[in-house]
């Protein structure tokens, strides 16, 4: 891993590149939008930390407002990092199935309220057994597949069976339902609302079926960055799992209230011809998803010609000729993978380093 | 950092916390030996390309196999620094170093190790020379020969000769030869790729001949990789091959390189089995990697693999007859292990199904 | 560093030794004592994290109660770990003097309220300059030397001068006074009260002198584990900086409401004679302070004969003969140094692993 | 982990974030060369004791100096594992390994490296043999000879010979010789300590002679350290000296070992100057270390040094005439650098007052 901690106040042009920047003004803006959106709504933001992997960044949103003071995490080890980061209310919208991991989940519930989603009766029984052994109660939500074709029940009936099972077993507490869906790529807000209603509606059907059995459904955790405004207006949704909005990605550019705050700072190291500049990072530092739809800032008229493993080939339209040693910034097409590949964010404001933020949940695959 | 549940040395591999990298030591040793035996008694030598794994323990195994140049190839100065801390002392950096910060790091490293760096620009030669002379170190320099127009390096003609001479005349620098900085191409047909790469090799040979004709002596010509090491390694005038994939291997080369097979795989766990033709695992794109192509499922090699960020999805053509339970292990061979190794802080080295060693990857994430 | 994360539920006798244990029942007891002591007092606990170096452990005390929801830290980098750990109210009872570090302190004040103690006019001026440059306000307290003979003003007059200076400068906010003293080694509670009153009184004199100038003194941060009960009863003290009570040390055994919860688990590896057992850790894992006054649990009738760098030589009175391979536990004389030498705590309850706790502020010297 | 403010390679040392370890490379290289030159052409060889720093970069420098046995001495298996990841492949563990978990780790390590371990107990020999044979590895075993009664090891007489024979008869084990596991004594007078240690050396020689008289051949006799390397290294029958302090050196040996001087110091910053005879710094016991004795102030060698956990206190006999400012640097030479290095995650290697390299210490904290 790298351990690059430039002094606060270092001008950007003195940074040793490449580095993963956060534009702090843009981040503040994004957090303020969410704080404002959910200020008076019943539904609140539960920030997804898979996109940030830093409890410091998650705590900043909690302080800014709009959240239920909790987060969701993709993995158990990521949840541990957040609980260690002072965030007690955590949802893992994913399945934890091995006894080793369930034991660790149970232990974590001594320090926080760490809920998990389930879609399988055997899994609920194992969670119950381990929780009873350890003397804790673990909250479970039924995951509902609405579109993603991965985990999740496929019918209200299956949801009811699992909710009843969870209600009947010691050591587990049935908390609600959860779904994830993807309404991105729809610049039209009305179309996003329609699609969000349709997909989240599948999850709400499971909620209704469970409630029809007399079982209260406390949590309905649905909605993401692209549906953050829509989901807050769908009756019954109690929380939204937004992740991308914090650091943003070009592909969500139609959500123009948010700004891309996560950028890679690079340096031109070679200009084999006047309109070609070769930069000092490549696919390993980005991911295919970040490279696709990426754009370049800092040098005018530049497009990306090729992303190699360790270099990026830029083409200029001639507006501003490349110079060896000059810096540029890449705005990612899709940001999510980058904090899983870097060890520090360099937080910058007005051209100087404001803070160095570790990424302690990097590599939290477990 | 990764935070796996610890399992003792000797544990059965299936008990390890997932998703995780498993390296089969028997296969790894065979791969290393296959390539080492090719280079035995040849003029061209191997320079293991260790940025593809970031692991000093593995780099030392590669160097201990006979017939290498005694050093490694890396992509960044940061990787060289990390390996330098682990007793590797000869580096060839596959790139140019232009900023004052990096030139200072390069000169500092040159006190502790032999360092070769590429150039493609006369003013960079002047900057390197000034810094090396001031620091009292010697830096070996190769001229980068581009593989095609508009890529890193210069054309093999007069500009390459001029650069070579400029290096030779510069205090603190030693002209060492030529290097191509090759990008892996997306060509599934290795023999086609090899054919295409002959052109790149030829450009480096052309540069050598032009330099020698101009009275400049050439020590090193560094070209090729795992995909063409037998061809490049048997070409007159080539002195070293910076090959790295051969050790852990990639699914993309599977069955296409004699004597080499995947030694590294990702072990994942079934977390959901919602439908008979769909198996969901805990290894998504962030853990298995798919920047250069999809991984191959070991259990269901014909399945369609979908990786979202955090979930793996094995899509079967027809519902499986096998009994699949939550907790079962599913293994994947990454399409490009170099991309995948960069996602991990350590690898599990396994022999006969039992954990034998845990190898740290200190060069992971060293993009600087 | 080590990265030993045994699975939750592992019995102690299967642990690979040595390891640094926390007895979770003892820790819960210690935290409950503090929560109870400060439940109805104006004065609250501000836990010192130098003894624990884990935001998770600090958050546990905040959840248990008795605190002002903040901590104090020995160093700036330790404060960063705590802010990343979700703890916003931090006091650094130490001097931060270089511009590099002050800039970092200023940046941290964007995320939390991180105060620092001062004893020097130049230092206050530099803090003011850097804070203004960065557009933040940094809280400062005047450190008063009452006994320790290190940093701190030596007179009320000097305290008044510095408080006035802090009041007059932009970018700094005068918050109060702070002192540290050592009333340990006094098993007699009355004597501890007398000594605490006398020493903390020196700090209160500075407070009074500053208030006499019309400057309000919001915080009086004085008192430690050995004076935790006394300080809470001294009028004017607003908070106590207790650290040792969490994991405890044998030398504070007279505070018998607290239990030693931090222990080193070892294994006998050699028995050169029947009454001599050699254990598998030594001074490097302990420190001189931990080794002095240490005791042994788990094998009866055992005393410590010698602490070598990598081994410990134990002597038995013959009650229970040593056996190669048997385990034992060392209770430290003084615990503070151990979390600075280990990378993980293994939290155990009733003989099995309950949780593995990282020690992220280990090595935070900066 | 340490979280210092990063400073680029080439930075003046005074700009580095404190408290921090500064290694003067010129002094370090002289120290290494001093000891290497003693061992040149001698029968006894050096086995650098690397647990005293935990740093692979430094270990490789020690091994690269001529006339070592080619391997290192460590105190724990965890240290051996850490160095094994950095290309060291010959370890002598100064201790016994008795639990099933550790024996499994030992055998796994023995696949990748030559490993020597000590024994002092016949049933341990049986356990090691069983595990090594099952794993199909060979472990080198030395019999530990105690330095005095009631310490690790056995007496040099018949019990040592019996253990040596038992090892020799055990599958998977190779009897290699004898080792004393010496504790540094608190003797300021090095020559007195050296005299005392002759007794320890003699015990190992006695064991060797008894074994040879019983027809057991002895390859290795490992005794001594920095404090007596010239005596032990010149003693007939001694084959290796596990010395380590000589590289970074300690204040405790200052001026007492010819050609060796402290290469590692702790740089701290003045944080308070409340009285003219008292300087407070940011380097307390947790950063400077004083387990075995007080550090020496470089600027005020006669001062009384007090270290509380987080503060350093330089107590002058009389108020200083020097102008002391907050932010000034104060340097300390640790009494025992082995203790101090264990507090850090990295060291700054400096030459001519400028940062040249940053060395990781991956073996720090590996007590297991």
Element layout with pairings:
The complex is a heterotetramer, with two copies of chain A (366 residues) and two copies of chain B (368 residues).
Chain A: E1 19-23, H1 24-37, E2 44-48, H2 55-64, E3 67-72, H3 76-84, E4 89-92, H4 99-108, E5 113-118, H5 121-134, E6 138-145, H6 156-168, E7 172-180, H7 189-212, E8 219-221, H8 228-231, E9 239-240, E10 262-273, E11 276-279, H9 283-286, H10 288-291, E12 295-297, E13 302-307, E14 312-316, E15 327-331, E16 344-349, E17 352-358
Parallel strand pairs in A: 1-16, 2-3, 2-9, 3-4, 4-5, 5-6, 6-7, 7-8
Antiparallel strand pairs in A: 1-10, 10-11, 10-15, 11-14, 12-15, 13-14, 16-17
Chain B: E1 20-24, H1 25-39, E2 45-46, H2 56-64, E3 72-74, H3 77-84, E4 90-96, H4 100-112, E5 114-119, H5 122-135, E6 139-145, H6 158-168, E7 173-180, H7 190-213, E8 220-222, H8 229-233, E9 240-241, H9 245-248, E10 264-275, E11 278-281, H10 285-288, E12 296-297, E13 304-307, E14 312-315, E15 329-333, H11 337-341, E16 346-351, E17 354-360
Parallel strand pairs in B: 1-16, 2-9, 3-4, 4-5, 5-6, 6-7, 7-8
Antiparallel strand pairs in B: 1-10, 10-11, 10-15, 11-14, 12-15, 13-14, 16-17
Helix pairs in contact in B: 3-4, 4-5
